[in-house]
Structures are given as C-alpha cells and as structure tokens.
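[[Local backbone shapes]]
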Amino acid sequence: MKSTLDKLPIAYGSGFPTLLRKEIKRFYKVGFQTVAAPVLTAVLYLMIFGHVLEGKEVYGRLNYTAFLIPGLVMMSVLQNAFANTSSSLIQSKVTGNLVFVLLAPFSHFEFYAAYVLAAVFRGIVVGAGVLLITVWFAAPAFEHPLWILIFALLGAAILGSMGLIAGIWADKYDQLAAFQNFIIMPATMLSGVFYSIHSLPASWQAVSHLNPFFYMIDGFRYGFFGVSDISPWDSLAIVVCFFVLVSAMALRLLQKGYKLRN
C-alpha cells in the first residue's frame, strides 16, 4: 500500500527543488538582460507617456503618471513570467538538453510547478524593480496591498503557464516569437495598461471585456487606488477561471508528452 506521501503531487525526496533552483539560476545569472533591461524599458514607457500626457486625469482624480505605474508594473510581471518558461523550454528543445530533464523521475505536476514558480519569481522580481524605480516619478497609493499581491501572483502564474504551453508547442524560435508577437503582446498592450477602458467607444469596451489580461491589470490597479473599471471581485473570478484553464492545458500537454517525448 502506498503511503500518504506517495500520493502527494510533489513527492518527498523528489528532484523538484533542484529543477526549481536550476530555473531560477538560469535567469539570475544573466540578470542584466532578464531583470535590468525590462525595468529600463518600463521606465522609458513612463517617461515618454507621462511626459506626453502630463496633466491628464483618470477617474476624475488620478494623475496620469500615477495611473500608469501599476499598469507598467503588471505588464512587466506578465511579460517576464511568460518569457521565463517559454525561453527556457525552447532553448532546451533546440539545444537538445531537455532530454536530461525528461529522464529524471519527475511527475508532470513537478515539472509544471518548477517552471511556473520560477516564472512567478522572475515576474515578481522584475515588477518590484519597476515599482521601486517608477515611484520616484509619482508615488501611487497602496490602498489594498492584498489585492496587489493576489493579482500579481495569479497573473505571473497564468503567463508562466502560457509560456510553458508556447514552449511545448514551438519547435523553433520564430514560432515562439510569433506566439509572443501575435498573442501575448497585443493582449497585454490592449488590456488597459495605458488607459482606462471607459475612455473607449462602447464597442471597444465590449472587446476589452473579452481580453482576460484586462482583468489582471484592472484588479491589480484597484489594489493601488481603490478604483477600477469593474469590480475587483469580478476580475478575480475571471482571472482564477483563466488560471485553472491554462494550468489544466499545460498539465495535460505535459502528461501526454506532447512534442517533448515524441
């Protein structure tokens, strides 16, 4: 009879901590590229848009620069969480060293958890770096810190899972670039990072409500200012459902060994 420990998703004595540490070290060793560069990009966005739209108010009371900061922080979290898992998998597939990970006695859940947790860690580190730099331009309020943390963690986990799916699906770097340029980038840029959707025509507001990234950004921004385009509880429900969906898809692909073991 198997013990209770044998039934856990992550077994006692497994190589999960080693794989997690390996994924964290992979981006940490090139931190200038994986952390410093995204922070600089976000600061440039803030300087350009903040200068061009200086004096504009959002929600009737927020300075535009302050409004922009949470969106840039969350955008950095999402994009870097996606980049961590997707780039790691495609590099391993192209160079052929993925076989050494697949030969290890990992369950598909352990494989998923290690990659996604490393992606969450990178996303949060980059987001924290962006926040620390941008608060010098316009310090936002932190009215509901728990909402900030919840949406940051869920958003990073979702994009980490999507990066895993993209890395599994892609066979070449250009396929991965297409996934990022035609799915991740438009969904992020059109999610309300740079504007409130109430400033859009009604038809485009309806389109924005079909974008799950919008709910991540809107809920995250609510944690700073206590105002948002929709109820944070509605955003949380949609984000949780989306997380369950993409996680289930990633776990299913790993379980089947799609494009990994075949």
